[in-house]
Design a protein that fits this description.
The longest helix is centred in the middle third of the chain and has 32 residues. Helix 12 runs antiparallel to helix 13. This protein has two domains: 213 residues, Rossmann fold (3-Layer(aba) Sandwich), CATH 3.40.50; 249 residues, Rossmann fold (3-Layer(aba) Sandwich). The protein has 20 helices and 14 strands. It is 45% helix and 13% strand. Strands 3-2-1-4-5-6 form a six-stranded parallel sheet, sandwiched between helices. Strands 11-10-9-12-13-14 form a six-stranded parallel sheet. A two-stranded parallel ribbon has the order 7-8. The N and C termini lie far apart (68 Å). Bound molecules: uridine-5'-diphosphate-glucuronic acid (UGA). Uridine-5'-diphosphate-glucuronic acid binds next to helix 10. The site of uridine-5'-diphosphate-glucuronic acid has 20 residues, from helix 10.
């Protein structure tokens, strides 16, 4: 068993809270700091605040023993060897990451530094942030020998965040000092030595004692670029496959076959080649914009990223056109919408293409009854109330009397829907699937008009006749 290290994590959002709880899970003592008193009170009372697998049970296990919550950053700094900054870096008007929260935390840490500490940036930040943090701390009168700043980006996905943290493809540590690099190596040792995976109560995933995750040590600048470049590349992969899916639509090819054929090339790989209504969430849209902006500021032409964003925006418009072409006119049509979250298995609706589409369809005069397993409350709080928008208690209730059913989020629970039952509930059996969750041949056999992404649409025989005579 390696030595427990006292760690502070500043920020209790997705990254901060998951990191804090997972550091406790691998044996460290953690103080999680947030300046929002209500959040701290909620976490202290056992509320996890976010919908994330494994988080509730880990919080119950470690709350008040290996992990505690506070608003007092000064005290947390004094008590800890490493302080992880995991506060938000929202997108500013110009597309840059707004680093004011990072700066404020760095200055507050500086005011409490009395002995050597390692300050770790875990938030997604542009290259050079590490240097700015160092300068901000020095400007507050702290000597260079009292601290090091390390970049340790996080690659977790919402919905599988705990598993991603404990079973990472890689751990990246950008450190320009030996002392800081070895403290970070010690913090992650339970994972990199494989010791954690030997525990009978370890959360299972892709890593094991025989195959522990690698730790990659880089310069601080490289680590910062690795994070932005990784997210931008994944977004590019999605936009690429979406553009190819559009080509498949006009040629009657099938994107599933094309993506499979591409993904079998080990240089390309099968993941992140699922076409859809575009990427969303709190990371890809913001990080692509921030990376492009950094490149701009440094005089590098990275207009490839502008194209990635353009394709992503167009993808939603194309979906709207599909709905229109399935229904002829939109005003007054009743639509059942399945999915509001930006992807399945999360309640997060930030930059959700599903929510954008709901707003676009409301603007077209549609009546919408939406259902999402976890994101309805957030949607209700965040988008303007409309007489035309209602929420249903399940997928079947959303389909009642619908002119069409739209699939906007890839929730696992939608895969098992009983379409025979849906058929009897809907006014017209039309499904427009923005996530390719169903098999077109099966939908055809069930009597549906089924329109998906990058695959030939299927129509019940009668509809085909109508479509042919109408020249549609
Ligand atoms: C993403 C990255 O995957 C993580 O590695 C990273 O740590 C995280 O951002 C972050 O920077 O914090 P996340 O935003 O949780 O994670 O979600 P993803 O699973 O990557 O999905 C992002 C969006 O792309 C979703 O809207 C999803 O529906 C869409 N997507 C994903 C596709 O349209 N097609 C795909 O093949 C994959």
């Amino acid at each position: 068993m390696s030595k427990a290290i006292q760690i502070a994590v500043v920020g209790s959002g997705y990254v901060g809270l998951v990191a804090a709880v997972c550091f406790a899970e691998i044996g460290h003592d953690v103080i999680c700091v947030d300046n929002d008193e209500r959040k701290v009170a909620a976490l202290e009372s056992g509320d996890t605040l976010i919908h994330e697998k494994h988080l509730p049970e880990l919080l119950v296990r470690y709350r008040n023993n290996r992990i505690r919550f506070t608003t007092d950053l000064g005290e947390a700094t004094r008590e800890s060897e490493a302080i992880f900054i995991a506060v938000g870096t929202p997108q500013s008007e110009s597309g840059d990451a707004d680093l004011s929260y990072v700066e404020a935390v760095a200055c507050e840490i500086a005011r409490s530094l009395t002995s050597y500490k390692v300050i770790v940036e875990k938030s997604t930040v542009p290259v050079y942030t590490n240097e700015w943090i160092r300068r901000a701390i020095e400007r507050n009168g702290v000597g260079r020998r009292l601290f090091d700043v390390v970049s340790n980006p996080e690659f977790l996905r919402e919905g599988t965040a705990v598993e991603d943290f404990l079973h990472p493809d890689r751990i990246v540590v950008g450190a320009d000092s030996e002392a800081a690099a070895s403290l970070l190596a010690a913090i992650y040792a339970p994972l990199t030595t494989g010791a954690y995976y030997q525990r009978p109560d370890a959360i299972r995933g892709s890593c094991s004692t025989a195959q522990p995750p690698p730790l990659l040590t880089t310069s601080t600048k490289s680590a910062e670029i690795i994070k932005h470049a990784s997210n931008a590349f994944l977004a590019l992969k999605i936009s690429f496959i979406n553009a190819v899916s559009n080509l498949c639509e006009v040629t009657d090819a099938n994107i599933e076959q094309v993506a499979r054929g591409m993904g079998l090339d080990s240089r390309i790989g099968p993941r992140f080649l699922r076409p859809g209504i575009g990427y969303g969430g709190s990371c890809f849209p913001k990080d692509v914009a921030a990376f492009r902006s950094v490149a701009d500021q440094l005089g590098i032409d990275f207009s490839l990223l502008t194209e990635v964003e353009k394709i992503n925006t167009q993808q939603k418009k194309r979906f709207l056109s599909k709905v229109r072409s399935a229904l002829w006119t939109l005003r007054g049509k009743r639509l059942g919408v399945l999915g509001l979250a930006f992807k399945g298995e999360t309640d997060d609706i930030r930059e959700s293409p599903a929510v954008d589409l709901v707003e676009m369809l409301l603007a077209e005069g549609c009546f919408i009854t939406a259902y999402d397993p976890a994101a309805m409350k957030r949607t209700e709080e965040q988008i303007a109330a409309s007489r035309h928008l209602h929420y249903a208690e399940d997928a079947y209730a959303a389909a009642v009397d619908a002119d069409a059913l739209l699939i906007l989020t890839d929730w696992k629970e939608f895969v098992d829907l009983d379409f025979k039952r849906l058929y009897t509930l809907m006014r017209y059996p039309i499904v427009v699937d923005g996530r390719n969750l169903f098999d077109p041949a099966e939908m055809h056999d069930l009597g549906f008009t089924y329109i998906s992404i990058g695959r030939p649409a299927v129509y019940p025989t009668r509809d085909v006749e109508v479509a042919t005579t109408a020249g549609v």
